[in-house]
Design brief:
The chain contains 17 helices and 21 strands. The strands form 6 sheets. The chain has a 5-stranded parallel beta sheet. The longest helix is centred in the C-terminal third of the chain and has 21 residues. It is an alpha/beta fold. The chain folds into 2 domains: 295 residues, FAD/NAD(P)-binding domain; 111 residues, Flavocytochrome C3, Chain A, domain 1 (Alpha-Beta Complex), CATH 3.90.700. It is globular. Helix 2 packs across helix 5, helix 4 crosses helix 12 and helix 14 packs antiparallel against helix 15. The chain binds succinic acid.
Length: 568
Protein backbone atom coordinates (compact mmCIF):
# COMPACT_ATOMS: atom_id res chain seq x y z
CA UNK A 1 0.00 0.00 0.00
CA UNK A 2 1.16 3.53 -0.80
CA UNK A 3 0.47 6.10 1.89
CA UNK A 4 0.41 9.69 0.59
CA UNK A 5 0.49 12.36 3.27
CA UNK A 6 -0.76 15.77 2.19
CA UNK A 7 -3.37 16.91 -0.32
CA UNK A 8 -1.86 20.02 -1.88
CA UNK A 9 -0.75 20.01 -5.51
CA UNK A 10 2.05 17.45 -4.93
CA UNK A 11 -0.09 15.03 -2.91
CA UNK A 12 -2.99 15.20 -5.35
CA UNK A 13 -0.70 14.74 -8.37
CA UNK A 14 0.89 11.79 -6.64
CA UNK A 15 -2.48 10.23 -5.85
CA UNK A 16 -3.58 10.59 -9.48
CA UNK A 17 -0.37 8.94 -10.70
CA UNK A 18 -0.76 6.12 -8.15
CA UNK A 19 -4.36 5.48 -9.21
CA UNK A 20 -3.36 5.46 -12.88
CA UNK A 21 -0.59 2.98 -12.05
CA UNK A 22 -3.20 0.78 -10.42
CA UNK A 23 -1.60 0.53 -6.97
CA UNK A 24 -3.49 0.58 -3.71
CA UNK A 25 -3.13 4.08 -2.27
CA UNK A 26 -4.38 6.00 0.74
CA UNK A 27 -4.36 9.80 0.72
CA UNK A 28 -4.27 11.49 4.10
CA UNK A 29 -5.03 15.17 4.74
CA UNK A 30 -5.53 17.20 7.91
CA UNK A 31 -8.45 18.96 6.22
CA UNK A 32 -11.35 17.79 4.09
CA UNK A 33 -11.15 17.30 0.35
CA UNK A 34 -14.79 16.40 -0.20
CA UNK A 35 -17.14 19.36 -0.56
CA UNK A 36 -17.82 20.68 2.93
CA UNK A 37 -19.56 23.58 4.59
CA UNK A 38 -16.51 23.95 6.84
CA UNK A 39 -14.32 26.43 4.98
CA UNK A 40 -11.54 26.09 7.57
CA UNK A 41 -11.20 22.34 7.03
CA UNK A 42 -11.36 22.78 3.26
CA UNK A 43 -8.57 25.36 3.52
CA UNK A 44 -6.49 22.91 5.54
CA UNK A 45 -6.67 20.39 2.71
CA UNK A 46 -5.78 23.05 0.12
CA UNK A 47 -2.97 24.49 2.24
CA UNK A 48 -0.57 26.78 0.47
CA UNK A 49 -1.59 25.39 -2.93
CA UNK A 50 -5.07 26.82 -2.70
CA UNK A 51 -3.68 30.17 -1.51
CA UNK A 52 -1.31 30.62 -4.46
CA UNK A 53 -2.11 33.66 -6.55
CA UNK A 54 0.30 34.41 -9.36
CA UNK A 55 0.26 31.18 -11.23
CA UNK A 56 2.10 28.29 -12.74
CA UNK A 57 5.26 28.93 -14.75
CA UNK A 58 5.24 26.76 -17.86
CA UNK A 59 6.88 27.13 -21.27
CA UNK A 60 3.68 26.88 -23.29
CA UNK A 61 3.82 30.29 -24.98
CA UNK A 62 4.43 30.42 -28.73
CA UNK A 63 7.88 32.01 -28.41
CA UNK A 64 8.94 30.04 -25.34
CA UNK A 65 10.99 26.89 -24.78
CA UNK A 66 11.55 24.61 -21.83
CA UNK A 67 15.28 25.27 -22.26
CA UNK A 68 14.75 29.02 -21.73
CA UNK A 69 12.60 28.32 -18.69
CA UNK A 70 15.28 25.98 -17.33
CA UNK A 71 17.96 28.63 -17.91
CA UNK A 72 15.94 31.20 -15.93
CA UNK A 73 15.42 28.64 -13.15
CA UNK A 74 19.15 27.94 -12.96
CA UNK A 75 20.06 31.65 -13.02
CA UNK A 76 17.65 32.52 -10.19
CA UNK A 77 19.01 29.67 -8.04
CA UNK A 78 22.41 31.33 -7.55
CA UNK A 79 24.62 28.38 -8.47
CA UNK A 80 22.83 25.63 -6.58
CA UNK A 81 20.18 24.46 -9.03
CA UNK A 82 20.73 20.93 -10.29
CA UNK A 83 20.43 21.42 -14.07
CA UNK A 84 19.05 17.89 -14.49
CA UNK A 85 16.21 18.73 -12.12
CA UNK A 86 15.56 22.05 -13.89
CA UNK A 87 15.37 20.19 -17.20
CA UNK A 88 12.85 17.68 -15.83
CA UNK A 89 10.79 20.45 -14.21
CA UNK A 90 10.50 22.62 -17.27
CA UNK A 91 10.17 19.96 -19.98
CA UNK A 92 7.70 17.74 -18.10
CA UNK A 93 6.05 20.84 -16.67
CA UNK A 94 5.21 22.19 -20.11
CA UNK A 95 3.83 18.76 -21.09
CA UNK A 96 1.78 18.54 -17.90
CA UNK A 97 0.38 22.01 -18.48
CA UNK A 98 -0.59 21.19 -22.08
CA UNK A 99 -2.33 18.03 -20.84
CA UNK A 100 -4.20 20.01 -18.19
CA UNK A 101 -5.29 22.62 -20.71
CA UNK A 102 -6.50 19.86 -23.01
CA UNK A 103 -8.32 18.36 -20.01
CA UNK A 104 -10.21 21.57 -19.32
CA UNK A 105 -8.06 23.47 -16.81
CA UNK A 106 -9.74 26.92 -16.75
CA UNK A 107 -6.69 29.08 -17.53
CA UNK A 108 -7.35 32.74 -18.21
CA UNK A 109 -7.41 33.67 -21.91
CA UNK A 110 -7.66 36.90 -23.83
CA UNK A 111 -10.57 37.94 -26.02
CA UNK A 112 -9.19 35.95 -28.95
CA UNK A 113 -8.91 32.79 -26.86
CA UNK A 114 -5.13 32.85 -26.53
CA UNK A 115 -3.62 32.03 -23.16
CA UNK A 116 -3.10 35.16 -21.12
CA UNK A 117 0.44 34.69 -19.76
CA UNK A 118 1.78 36.80 -16.89
CA UNK A 119 5.31 38.05 -16.27
CA UNK A 120 7.07 37.63 -12.94
CA UNK A 121 10.53 38.40 -11.60
CA UNK A 122 13.60 36.85 -13.23
CA UNK A 123 11.62 35.27 -16.08
CA UNK A 124 12.91 36.40 -19.46
CA UNK A 125 9.42 36.27 -20.91
CA UNK A 126 5.77 36.12 -19.88
CA UNK A 127 5.09 32.45 -19.11
CA UNK A 128 2.89 32.44 -16.02
CA UNK A 129 -0.36 30.57 -16.64
CA UNK A 130 -3.06 31.85 -14.30
CA UNK A 131 -6.70 31.00 -13.62
CA UNK A 132 -9.44 32.97 -11.93
CA UNK A 133 -6.97 35.86 -12.46
CA UNK A 134 -5.23 35.93 -9.04
CA UNK A 135 -6.88 32.72 -7.72
CA UNK A 136 -4.74 30.22 -9.64
CA UNK A 137 -3.95 27.97 -6.69
CA UNK A 138 -7.61 27.53 -5.78
CA UNK A 139 -8.46 26.70 -9.40
CA UNK A 140 -5.61 24.19 -9.65
CA UNK A 141 -6.50 22.55 -6.35
CA UNK A 142 -10.14 22.20 -7.35
CA UNK A 143 -9.17 20.79 -10.76
CA UNK A 144 -6.91 18.10 -9.28
CA UNK A 145 -9.22 17.35 -6.34
CA UNK A 146 -12.07 16.65 -8.75
CA UNK A 147 -10.02 13.91 -10.44
CA UNK A 148 -8.86 12.47 -7.12
CA UNK A 149 -12.41 12.38 -5.77
CA UNK A 150 -13.49 10.54 -8.89
CA UNK A 151 -10.81 7.91 -8.17
CA UNK A 152 -12.07 7.79 -4.57
CA UNK A 153 -15.63 7.24 -5.79
CA UNK A 154 -14.43 4.37 -7.98
CA UNK A 155 -12.56 2.81 -5.04
CA UNK A 156 -9.11 3.36 -6.56
CA UNK A 157 -7.92 5.75 -3.85
CA UNK A 158 -8.81 5.61 -0.17
CA UNK A 159 -9.20 9.06 1.38
CA UNK A 160 -8.60 9.72 5.07
CA UNK A 161 -9.51 13.25 6.11
CA UNK A 162 -8.90 15.23 9.34
CA UNK A 163 -5.73 13.22 9.89
CA UNK A 164 -2.03 14.20 10.07
CA UNK A 165 1.36 12.57 10.16
CA UNK A 166 2.66 11.90 13.64
CA UNK A 167 5.81 9.93 12.79
CA UNK A 168 7.26 7.44 10.35
CA UNK A 169 7.90 3.78 11.05
CA UNK A 170 11.03 2.05 9.85
CA UNK A 171 12.06 -1.55 9.68
CA UNK A 172 15.62 -2.60 8.82
CA UNK A 173 16.34 0.87 7.48
CA UNK A 174 13.33 1.05 5.18
CA UNK A 175 10.09 2.87 5.79
CA UNK A 176 7.32 0.48 6.77
CA UNK A 177 4.46 2.81 7.58
CA UNK A 178 3.47 5.74 9.71
CA UNK A 179 1.76 6.73 12.90
CA UNK A 180 -1.15 9.02 12.06
CA UNK A 181 -3.05 11.34 14.35
CA UNK A 182 -6.67 12.34 13.99
CA UNK A 183 -8.15 15.70 14.95
CA UNK A 184 -8.94 14.45 18.46
CA UNK A 185 -5.34 13.37 19.01
CA UNK A 186 -5.97 9.64 18.61
CA UNK A 187 -3.08 7.83 17.02
CA UNK A 188 -3.13 4.89 14.74
CA UNK A 189 -0.35 2.82 13.21
CA UNK A 190 -0.62 2.29 9.46
CA UNK A 191 1.60 -0.23 7.68
CA UNK A 192 2.59 0.88 4.19
CA UNK A 193 5.18 -0.42 1.77
CA UNK A 194 5.82 3.11 0.51
CA UNK A 195 5.16 6.50 2.07
CA UNK A 196 5.08 9.71 0.05
CA UNK A 197 5.49 12.93 2.01
CA UNK A 198 3.72 15.91 0.45
CA UNK A 199 3.40 17.84 3.68
CA UNK A 200 4.75 21.25 2.61
CA UNK A 201 7.52 23.50 3.86
CA UNK A 202 8.21 25.47 7.03
CA UNK A 203 7.72 29.16 6.27
CA UNK A 204 4.98 29.30 8.92
CA UNK A 205 7.68 28.88 11.57
CA UNK A 206 8.13 32.61 11.04
CA UNK A 207 5.71 35.06 12.67
CA UNK A 208 5.58 37.14 9.47
CA UNK A 209 4.57 34.71 6.78
CA UNK A 210 2.38 34.47 3.72
CA UNK A 211 1.79 30.80 4.53
CA UNK A 212 -0.94 28.65 5.85
CA UNK A 213 -0.48 28.05 9.60
CA UNK A 214 0.09 24.34 9.01
CA UNK A 215 3.31 24.93 7.04
CA UNK A 216 5.67 24.07 9.89
CA UNK A 217 7.82 21.39 8.34
CA UNK A 218 6.55 18.42 10.31
CA UNK A 219 7.28 16.06 7.41
CA UNK A 220 10.89 17.22 7.25
CA UNK A 221 11.47 16.55 10.93
CA UNK A 222 9.84 13.12 10.78
CA UNK A 223 11.83 12.20 7.68
CA UNK A 224 15.02 13.25 9.43
CA UNK A 225 14.11 11.10 12.42
CA UNK A 226 13.62 8.19 10.05
CA UNK A 227 17.21 8.73 8.89
CA UNK A 228 16.62 10.70 5.68
CA UNK A 229 19.15 13.22 4.46
CA UNK A 230 17.76 16.73 4.42
CA UNK A 231 19.37 19.53 2.45
CA UNK A 232 19.50 23.28 1.87
CA UNK A 233 17.46 24.17 4.96
CA UNK A 234 19.17 27.55 5.26
CA UNK A 235 17.44 28.84 2.13
CA UNK A 236 14.20 30.53 3.16
CA UNK A 237 12.59 32.75 0.55
CA UNK A 238 11.01 35.99 1.72
CA UNK A 239 8.34 37.36 -0.58
CA UNK A 240 8.83 41.11 -0.94
CA UNK A 241 5.24 42.22 -1.07
CA UNK A 242 3.03 41.03 1.74
CA UNK A 243 0.39 43.57 2.73
CA UNK A 244 1.78 45.18 5.89
CA UNK A 245 0.20 44.01 9.13
CA UNK A 246 -1.37 40.97 7.44
CA UNK A 247 -0.18 37.68 5.94
CA UNK A 248 -1.84 38.54 2.67
CA UNK A 249 0.41 38.22 -0.36
CA UNK A 250 0.35 40.78 -3.13
CA UNK A 251 1.42 38.70 -6.09
CA UNK A 252 4.59 39.42 -7.98
CA UNK A 253 2.33 39.43 -11.01
CA UNK A 254 1.31 42.93 -9.89
CA UNK A 255 4.90 44.10 -10.32
CA UNK A 256 4.99 42.09 -13.55
CA UNK A 257 2.04 44.18 -14.72
CA UNK A 258 3.89 47.43 -13.93
CA UNK A 259 3.61 48.26 -10.20
CA UNK A 260 6.68 49.86 -8.61
CA UNK A 261 8.11 50.05 -5.09
CA UNK A 262 8.65 53.38 -3.35
CA UNK A 263 10.25 54.29 -0.04
CA UNK A 264 8.59 56.52 2.56
CA UNK A 265 9.65 59.61 0.56
CA UNK A 266 7.97 58.31 -2.57
CA UNK A 267 11.29 57.46 -4.31
CA UNK A 268 11.75 54.27 -6.33
CA UNK A 269 14.76 52.44 -4.86
CA UNK A 270 15.05 49.26 -6.96
CA UNK A 271 16.18 51.09 -10.11
CA UNK A 272 19.54 51.87 -8.47
CA UNK A 273 20.09 48.26 -7.43
CA UNK A 274 19.29 45.99 -10.38
CA UNK A 275 18.74 46.40 -14.11
CA UNK A 276 15.40 44.60 -13.78
CA UNK A 277 14.39 46.99 -10.95
CA UNK A 278 11.22 45.65 -9.23
CA UNK A 279 11.48 42.47 -11.31
CA UNK A 280 14.92 41.54 -10.01
CA UNK A 281 15.13 38.06 -8.46
CA UNK A 282 13.00 37.82 -5.36
CA UNK A 283 15.91 37.58 -2.92
CA UNK A 284 17.41 40.80 -4.30
CA UNK A 285 14.15 42.73 -3.95
CA UNK A 286 13.43 41.43 -0.42
CA UNK A 287 16.97 42.19 0.73
CA UNK A 288 16.90 45.69 -0.68
CA UNK A 289 13.56 46.38 0.98
CA UNK A 290 14.94 45.07 4.27
CA UNK A 291 17.84 47.53 4.05
CA UNK A 292 15.62 50.45 3.07
CA UNK A 293 13.33 49.71 6.02
CA UNK A 294 16.26 49.47 8.42
CA UNK A 295 17.88 52.69 7.17
CA UNK A 296 14.64 54.64 7.36
CA UNK A 297 13.44 53.07 10.59
CA UNK A 298 10.10 52.24 8.97
CA UNK A 299 7.89 49.14 8.96
CA UNK A 300 6.75 49.17 5.34
CA UNK A 301 7.59 50.41 1.89
CA UNK A 302 4.93 51.30 -0.67
CA UNK A 303 3.70 49.31 -3.63
CA UNK A 304 2.36 51.70 -6.23
CA UNK A 305 0.01 49.98 -8.69
CA UNK A 306 -1.82 53.13 -9.72
CA UNK A 307 0.01 53.20 -13.06
CA UNK A 308 -1.64 49.89 -14.02
CA UNK A 309 -5.07 51.44 -13.55
CA UNK A 310 -4.07 54.56 -15.46
CA UNK A 311 -2.62 52.56 -18.37
CA UNK A 312 -5.39 49.95 -18.55
CA UNK A 313 -8.32 52.17 -17.71
CA UNK A 314 -10.73 52.23 -14.83
CA UNK A 315 -11.47 48.77 -13.38
CA UNK A 316 -8.23 47.16 -14.62
CA UNK A 317 -6.89 46.29 -11.17
CA UNK A 318 -10.23 44.92 -9.97
CA UNK A 319 -10.59 42.80 -13.10
CA UNK A 320 -7.03 41.45 -13.19
CA UNK A 321 -6.48 41.10 -9.42
CA UNK A 322 -9.88 40.61 -7.75
CA UNK A 323 -8.63 38.97 -4.53
CA UNK A 324 -5.94 41.56 -3.98
CA UNK A 325 -8.38 44.37 -4.67
CA UNK A 326 -10.71 42.93 -2.02
CA UNK A 327 -7.91 42.43 0.53
CA UNK A 328 -6.49 45.91 0.14
CA UNK A 329 -9.98 47.39 0.35
CA UNK A 330 -10.59 45.43 3.56
CA UNK A 331 -7.52 47.13 5.02
CA UNK A 332 -8.92 50.54 4.06
CA UNK A 333 -6.87 51.17 0.89
CA UNK A 334 -7.99 52.08 -2.60
CA UNK A 335 -5.01 50.82 -4.56
CA UNK A 336 -6.33 52.28 -7.80
CA UNK A 337 -5.56 55.73 -6.35
CA UNK A 338 -2.87 55.25 -3.70
CA UNK A 339 0.16 53.06 -2.94
CA UNK A 340 -0.32 50.30 -0.34
CA UNK A 341 2.14 49.41 2.45
CA UNK A 342 4.07 46.16 1.98
CA UNK A 343 6.88 44.34 3.77
CA UNK A 344 8.75 41.09 3.14
CA UNK A 345 7.48 37.91 4.82
CA UNK A 346 8.65 34.27 4.88
CA UNK A 347 7.06 32.64 1.87
CA UNK A 348 8.78 29.49 0.66
CA UNK A 349 11.44 27.10 1.90
CA UNK A 350 13.82 25.82 -0.75
CA UNK A 351 15.33 23.10 1.44
CA UNK A 352 13.77 19.92 2.66
CA UNK A 353 14.06 16.16 2.40
CA UNK A 354 16.71 15.46 -0.22
CA UNK A 355 15.41 13.50 -3.17
CA UNK A 356 16.68 12.28 -6.48
CA UNK A 357 14.83 13.01 -9.71
CA UNK A 358 12.33 10.22 -8.99
CA UNK A 359 11.36 11.79 -5.66
CA UNK A 360 13.16 9.02 -3.80
CA UNK A 361 14.70 10.01 -0.46
CA UNK A 362 17.77 8.35 1.01
CA UNK A 363 15.52 6.04 3.03
CA UNK A 364 14.15 3.13 0.99
CA UNK A 365 10.38 3.32 0.67
CA UNK A 366 10.22 7.02 1.61
CA UNK A 367 9.43 9.52 -1.16
CA UNK A 368 8.93 13.28 -0.97
CA UNK A 369 7.44 15.82 -3.36
CA UNK A 370 6.53 19.47 -3.34
CA UNK A 371 7.83 21.96 -0.81
CA UNK A 372 8.73 19.27 1.74
CA UNK A 373 11.35 18.00 -0.72
CA UNK A 374 14.69 19.33 -1.85
CA UNK A 375 14.83 18.15 -5.45
CA UNK A 376 17.53 20.59 -6.54
CA UNK A 377 15.20 22.63 -8.76
CA UNK A 378 15.23 25.76 -6.63
CA UNK A 379 18.83 26.05 -5.51
CA UNK A 380 19.37 29.06 -3.28
CA UNK A 381 16.40 31.05 -4.58
CA UNK A 382 13.26 29.71 -6.24
CA UNK A 383 12.15 31.26 -9.49
CA UNK A 384 8.69 32.80 -9.20
CA UNK A 385 5.73 30.49 -9.90
CA UNK A 386 7.89 27.36 -10.16
CA UNK A 387 6.42 25.84 -7.00
CA UNK A 388 3.01 24.71 -8.28
CA UNK A 389 4.81 23.34 -11.32
CA UNK A 390 7.21 21.43 -9.10
CA UNK A 391 4.28 19.90 -7.22
CA UNK A 392 2.66 18.81 -10.48
CA UNK A 393 5.79 17.29 -11.98
CA UNK A 394 7.49 15.75 -8.98
CA UNK A 395 4.22 14.74 -7.29
CA UNK A 396 3.43 12.61 -10.35
CA UNK A 397 6.99 11.32 -10.43
CA UNK A 398 6.70 10.33 -6.76
CA UNK A 399 3.48 8.43 -7.46
CA UNK A 400 5.04 6.53 -10.34
CA UNK A 401 8.31 5.82 -8.50
CA UNK A 402 6.53 4.63 -5.37
CA UNK A 403 4.30 2.39 -7.51
CA UNK A 404 7.42 0.91 -9.15
CA UNK A 405 8.96 0.39 -5.73
CA UNK A 406 5.88 -1.48 -4.52
CA UNK A 407 5.73 -3.51 -7.73
CA UNK A 408 9.37 -4.49 -7.17
CA UNK A 409 8.44 -5.81 -3.73
CA UNK A 410 9.83 -2.85 -1.85
CA UNK A 411 13.40 -3.30 -2.91
CA UNK A 412 15.83 -2.86 -5.76
CA UNK A 413 15.12 -0.29 -8.42
CA UNK A 414 12.65 1.67 -6.36
CA UNK A 415 15.19 2.81 -3.84
CA UNK A 416 17.60 5.66 -4.15
CA UNK A 417 19.95 3.47 -2.14
CA UNK A 418 21.08 2.07 -5.46
CA UNK A 419 21.65 5.43 -7.09
CA UNK A 420 25.25 6.44 -6.63
CA UNK A 421 25.02 10.03 -7.91
CA UNK A 422 23.45 12.78 -5.90
CA UNK A 423 23.06 10.71 -2.77
CA UNK A 424 26.82 10.35 -2.50
CA UNK A 425 27.20 14.10 -2.77
CA UNK A 426 24.63 14.75 -0.10
CA UNK A 427 25.85 12.16 2.33
CA UNK A 428 29.41 13.37 2.00
CA UNK A 429 28.26 16.97 2.48
CA UNK A 430 26.43 15.84 5.59
CA UNK A 431 29.73 15.09 7.25
CA UNK A 432 30.42 18.83 7.57
CA UNK A 433 27.45 19.17 9.90
CA UNK A 434 27.64 18.64 13.60
CA UNK A 435 25.19 16.26 15.11
CA UNK A 436 22.22 18.24 16.34
CA UNK A 437 21.03 17.37 19.82
CA UNK A 438 17.46 16.35 19.16
CA UNK A 439 15.21 16.65 22.17
CA UNK A 440 12.50 14.09 21.73
CA UNK A 441 10.21 14.09 24.71
CA UNK A 442 7.85 11.71 23.01
CA UNK A 443 9.56 9.24 20.65
CA UNK A 444 6.23 8.02 19.35
CA UNK A 445 7.66 5.86 16.59
CA UNK A 446 8.83 3.47 19.27
CA UNK A 447 5.24 2.88 20.34
CA UNK A 448 2.70 0.80 18.56
CA UNK A 449 0.08 3.20 19.65
CA UNK A 450 -3.61 3.42 19.32
CA UNK A 451 -5.42 5.73 21.69
CA UNK A 452 -5.67 9.31 22.79
CA UNK A 453 -2.78 11.74 23.00
CA UNK A 454 -1.17 11.00 26.35
CA UNK A 455 0.44 14.38 26.84
CA UNK A 456 -2.32 15.68 29.04
CA UNK A 457 -4.85 18.51 28.95
CA UNK A 458 -2.33 21.36 28.97
CA UNK A 459 -0.37 20.06 26.02
CA UNK A 460 -2.04 22.33 23.49
CA UNK A 461 -1.40 25.45 25.56
CA UNK A 462 2.22 24.39 26.02
CA UNK A 463 2.55 23.70 22.29
CA UNK A 464 1.29 27.20 21.43
CA UNK A 465 3.72 28.88 23.77
CA UNK A 466 6.63 26.73 22.51
CA UNK A 467 5.71 27.61 18.98
CA UNK A 468 5.70 31.31 19.67
CA UNK A 469 9.11 31.00 21.34
CA UNK A 470 10.44 29.19 18.26
CA UNK A 471 8.87 31.80 15.98
CA UNK A 472 10.47 34.64 17.89
CA UNK A 473 13.83 32.89 17.74
CA UNK A 474 13.78 32.23 13.98
CA UNK A 475 12.56 35.76 13.23
CA UNK A 476 15.43 37.21 15.27
CA UNK A 477 18.22 34.93 14.06
CA UNK A 478 17.21 33.46 10.71
CA UNK A 479 15.69 36.42 8.92
CA UNK A 480 16.62 38.04 5.63
CA UNK A 481 20.09 38.87 6.98
CA UNK A 482 21.84 36.59 9.43
CA UNK A 483 25.13 36.38 11.28
CA UNK A 484 26.85 33.86 13.52
CA UNK A 485 25.68 35.50 16.75
CA UNK A 486 22.02 35.46 15.75
CA UNK A 487 22.19 31.94 14.33
CA UNK A 488 23.83 30.63 17.52
CA UNK A 489 21.09 32.31 19.56
CA UNK A 490 18.47 30.26 17.67
CA UNK A 491 20.34 27.07 18.50
CA UNK A 492 20.65 28.09 22.14
CA UNK A 493 17.04 29.25 22.50
CA UNK A 494 15.54 26.20 20.79
CA UNK A 495 17.76 23.58 22.41
CA UNK A 496 15.69 23.51 25.59
CA UNK A 497 12.32 23.53 23.84
CA UNK A 498 10.44 20.32 23.10
CA UNK A 499 8.45 19.73 19.94
CA UNK A 500 9.18 19.34 16.28
CA UNK A 501 9.24 23.09 15.52
CA UNK A 502 12.18 23.59 17.87
CA UNK A 503 13.99 20.65 16.31
CA UNK A 504 13.44 22.02 12.85
CA UNK A 505 14.56 25.52 13.85
CA UNK A 506 17.71 23.96 15.28
CA UNK A 507 18.35 22.11 12.03
CA UNK A 508 17.79 25.27 9.96
CA UNK A 509 20.18 27.15 12.23
CA UNK A 510 22.72 24.36 11.89
CA UNK A 511 22.52 24.62 8.10
CA UNK A 512 22.75 28.40 8.22
CA UNK A 513 25.79 28.24 10.50
CA UNK A 514 27.54 25.85 8.14
CA UNK A 515 27.12 28.01 5.08
CA UNK A 516 29.70 30.71 5.74
CA UNK A 517 28.93 32.75 2.63
CA UNK A 518 26.06 34.76 1.18
CA UNK A 519 24.16 33.13 -1.65
CA UNK A 520 20.63 33.61 -2.90
CA UNK A 521 18.20 33.76 -0.02
CA UNK A 522 20.93 33.08 2.54
CA UNK A 523 22.51 36.45 3.30
CA UNK A 524 25.19 36.52 6.02
CA UNK A 525 26.15 39.98 7.30
CA UNK A 526 29.38 38.43 8.61
CA UNK A 527 30.14 36.67 5.30
CA UNK A 528 28.75 39.04 2.66
CA UNK A 529 30.57 37.53 -0.32
CA UNK A 530 29.60 34.46 -2.31
CA UNK A 531 32.25 31.78 -2.00
CA UNK A 532 32.51 29.71 -5.19
CA UNK A 533 33.93 26.83 -3.17
CA UNK A 534 30.60 26.50 -1.35
CA UNK A 535 28.57 25.97 -4.52
CA UNK A 536 27.41 22.59 -3.30
CA UNK A 537 24.16 21.34 -1.94
CA UNK A 538 24.50 20.91 1.77
CA UNK A 539 23.10 17.88 3.48
CA UNK A 540 22.40 16.87 7.00
CA UNK A 541 21.63 13.44 8.38
CA UNK A 542 19.44 13.10 11.41
CA UNK A 543 20.83 11.84 14.65
CA UNK A 544 20.74 8.09 14.59
CA UNK A 545 18.45 6.40 17.07
CA UNK A 546 19.22 3.02 18.62
CA UNK A 547 16.34 1.18 16.99
CA UNK A 548 17.48 2.30 13.54
CA UNK A 549 21.02 0.99 13.48
CA UNK A 550 20.25 -0.67 10.15
CA UNK A 551 19.57 2.80 8.78
CA UNK A 552 23.05 3.87 9.84
CA UNK A 553 24.50 0.99 7.85
CA UNK A 554 22.46 2.14 4.92
CA UNK A 555 23.98 5.61 5.10
CA UNK A 556 27.52 4.41 5.68
CA UNK A 557 27.86 3.07 2.16
CA UNK A 558 27.74 6.54 0.62
CA UNK A 559 30.92 8.05 2.00
CA UNK A 560 32.36 9.09 -1.34
CA UNK A 561 33.84 12.48 -2.17
CA UNK A 562 31.62 15.47 -2.66
CA UNK A 563 31.13 16.50 -6.27
CA UNK A 564 30.72 20.21 -6.74
CA UNK A 565 27.71 21.48 -8.59
CA UNK A 566 29.45 24.80 -9.21
CA UNK A 567 29.05 24.25 -12.94
CA UNK A 568 25.36 25.04 -12.57
C1 LIG B 1 3.24 35.38 -6.31
O1 LIG B 1 2.16 35.34 -6.88
O2 LIG B 1 3.95 36.37 -6.23
C2 LIG B 1 3.74 34.15 -5.65
C3 LIG B 1 4.12 33.18 -6.66
C4 LIG B 1 5.22 32.35 -6.15
O3 LIG B 1 5.52 32.32 -4.97
O4 LIG B 1 5.87 31.71 -6.97
Amino acid sequence: MMLIVGAGVAGLSCAIAAARAGVEATLVTPGVLRPSADAGLAALAGGNTAMAQGGIAAAVGEDDTAADHAADTVAAGAGLVDPRAAHVLTAEGAEAMRAMLAGGFPADRDASGRLSLGLEAAHRRARIVHAGEDRTGAALHAFLAREVLEFVRRGLIRLTERTSLDSLLTDSGAVSGAVLRDAAGHRVTVRAGAVVLATGGYAALYPRTSNHAGARGEGIVQAAHAGAVVADLEFVQFHPTVLAGTGFLISEAVRGAGAVLRDGSGERFMTAVHAAAELAPRDVVARTMHRVLRQRGEDAVWLDATGIEVAGGSGTLARRFPSITAATRAQGFDWTREPVPVAPAAHYTMGGVATDLEARTTVPGLFAAGEVASTGVHGANRLASNSLLEGLVFGARAGRAAADYLDAGGSGAGSWANDTGMLAELSAAASVFEEVPVTVADPSWDLAPTGADARGPNSQIAAVSELSAVSAAVAAGLGIERDATGIDAVRRDCASLPGHAAQLATMVAQSAASRTESRGAHQRADHPATDPAQAVRQGWVARSTPHRSAGDDHRAQFATPLRSLAAC
